[in-house]
Design a protein that fits this description.
Structural class: mainly beta
Number of domains: 1
Helix content: under 10%
Radius of gyration: 19 Å
Number of helices: 2
Order of helices and strands: EEEEEEEEEEHEHEEEEEEEEEE
Distance between the termini: 27 Å
Shape: globular
Length: 258
């Protein structure tokens, strides 16, 4: 009936399910010499895959509807055709430890409800509001699982294109503070969006402006202890109509974006 995919931003308090309008494509170990088609149009390439940037589980999603669950919104209704389904986030279990990366397990309960007027009005659908194009709600997601080298300009360009082209999206990185004995300062800039991982100043920042030109400035301290195996787990998400969210290991901060 419908495919729901778990995507960042996710935490102990928040889970996000994406409801794609087309088939989701996942590449277990993408190659640097191949292009991968994005459902609905376009293609991406990971130039440095296997050459300084380890990428696993490259998931390509075209147009999709994000559905967020948190303490205030544990139950959501979705409408598939004329059928109504009730989705409840039962609980989130943190299975992370010092030897593994962040690992959160979520349990959902799903049941079918009556398609009465009240449920139809409250249900989330994939129908586009009038005047909105499919591209307005497209989301891209790229998850590099290793530390990009400071001179990996191609890797930076790939992520910069995602930041520049997507009105809403999430990028997940695992970064080392030191590479080859040098501080691994890592920065991405695309028009009004700017991300910086700075182990010298011990801070991670993400800045942007919304469509209404409201400035969003997020920053988190870079702790002295990496998350696992020398890596810091960093996530930043944006939506130009709302705001942004930044996560470093277990800490998170947001402005306008749950």
């Amino acid at each position: 009936m419908a495919t729901l995919c778990l995507f960042p931003p996710c935490s102990r308090e928040t889970a996000t399910l994406y409801w794609p309008t087309s088939q989701v494509v996942t590449v277990a170990e993408p190659r640097a010499d191949e292009q991968y088609k994005v459902p609905g149009g376009g293609a991406v390439q990971v130039p440095q895959a296997g050459r300084g940037l380890e990428v696993r589980g490259l998931t390509l999603v075209g147009q999709a509807q994000p559905i967020t669950f948190d303490q205030e919104h544990q139950i959501r209704l979705i409408r598939v055709g004329e059928r109504i389904f009730r989705i409840r986030l039962v609980h989130a279990t943190d299975k992370s430890n010092a030897d593994t990366a962040m690992f959160l397990e979520y349990t959902f309960a799903i049941s079918e409800e009556d398609n009465n007027a009240e449920n139809l009005a409250a249900a989330i659908t994939l129908e586009q509001p009038k005047g909105q194009s499919p591209a307005d709600s497209a989301h891209g997601y790229l998850q590099p699982q290793g530390p990009p080298r400071p001179d990996d300009e191609e890797a930076r360009n790939l992520l910069t294109v995602a930041m520049d082209s997507q009105p809403a999206g999430t990028i997940v990185l695992r970064l080392r503070a030191v590479v080859n004995g040098q501080p691994n300062v890592w920065q991405l800039s695309a028009q009004t969006k700017s991300f910086r991982f700075d182990p010298i100043a011990r801070v991670v920042t993400f800045r942007m402006k919304t469509n209404a030109l409201r400035p969003v400035n997020l920053h988190l301290p870079l702790g002295t202890t990496p998350f696992t195996n020398g890596y810091y787990y960093v996530v930043f998400a944006w939506d130009v109509s709302a705001g942004a969210r930044l996560c470093v290991n277990y800490e998170s901060v947001s402005d306008g974006l749950k």
